[in-house]
Amino acid sequence: MKTMQTDNAILQVRKLTRSFGRLLAVNNLGFELKSGELKAVIGPNGAGKTTLFNLITGKLSPTSGDIRFQGGSIAGLAPHAIAQRGLARSFQLLNLFPNLSVFENVRVAVQARHRLRSSLFTAADGLKGVQGKTEELLERIGLSSYADHQSSQLSYGDQRSLEIGLALATEPKLLLLDEPTSGMSPLETQQTTQLIGRISKGLAVLLIEHHIEVVMALADTILVMHHGEKIAEGTPQQVSSDSKVQEAYLGGL
Ligand SMILES: Nc1ncnc2c1ncn2[C@@H]1O[C@H](COP(=O)(O)OP(=O)(O)OP(=O)(O)O)[C@@H](O)[C@H]1O
Ligand SMILES: [Mg+2]
User: Fold this and answer.
1) Which of 217, 171, 225 is nearest to 41 (CA)?
2) Going by CA atoms, what residue is nearest to atom 5 of ligand 1?
3) Could you tell me the residue range of the domain that residue 44 belongs to?
4) For the chain, how many structural domains are there in total?
């Protein structure tokens, strides 16, 4: 049966729990993400945010509970099976080929996606498609003018943008970003905030982020975790005036 709330939910997390021994890293967590929504996941260190991402992307299996993506359960599926359904995560620089150019890095990612989908294309069509798609992605992540540079020569901030580009090459329906601005200068943080704002149009995004100004600039909704549990969820305004949230942060500091 459909309810108003679940009508356009792309992701539904229900009673999700993951324990490590006696520690409940994620504890009975429930929330929904709508198509096109950007939800920031915040909380003190050790709150369970990355564990939540590892459960959604299949790096970890839940102890109990369910995760539904576009209507079907993905809980406990292998990472590649989940990725194939249209869920991407940006890995912090682990995916880059340092000796390849920026263009080649993106092209490899676009080609990998094409290979999965394009048995219908002729070789020539396929190549044209890959070239065009690569150029379009470089434009989208603001790196067109660096296309010929080796990716290792990019600034740290631009390498992280390139990582996001690789995730976008898979044409995801849902993008997971775990602390995309960590280690960045204030200027890079600002540029990355703008980039995420641009690419998130029409895309569902879950964003773990410690910089509160980034969260406030980008988030439609905020989910606050503490000790594995959800302690608050709502609009930035609702969440920032929540007394439990203020307590968790003061207590956590
Ligand atoms: N593979 C693991 N084995 C054992 N314990 C783990 C494992 N992964 C995470 N934990 C524990 O689970 C808890 C939640 O960790 P998690 O990394 O999800 O927190 P986080 O909210 O991402 O924190 P941070 O803001 O520091 O990144 C922590 O106590 C952590 O030590
Ligand atoms: Mg983390």
Assistant:
1) 225
2) 20
3) 1-86+172-253
4) 2
Q: Whose CA is nearest to atom 9 of ligand 1?
A: 51
The residue whose CA has the least distance to atom 7 of ligand 1 is 20
Percent of the chain's residues with pLDDT above 90: 79
Residues 158 and 218 in one domain: no
pLDDT of residue 82: 95
- Give pLDDT, residue 247: 84
Is the same domain home to 141 and 239?
Answer: no
Q: What is the pLDDT of residue 112?
A: 82
| CB distance 47 to ligand 1 below 6 Å | yes
Closest-lying ligand 1 atom to the alpha carbon of residue 52: 18
CA distance 225 to 229: 5
Q: Which ligand is nearest to the CA of 225?
A: 1
**Alpha-carbon span 31 to 19, nearest angstrom:** 19
Structural domain ending residue among the three candidates 171, 193, 209: 171
Shortest-distance atom of ligand 1 to CA 51: 18
The model carries a pTM of 0.90
Is-contact 147 103, C-beta < 8 A?
yes
The rounded mean pLDDT for the chain is 90
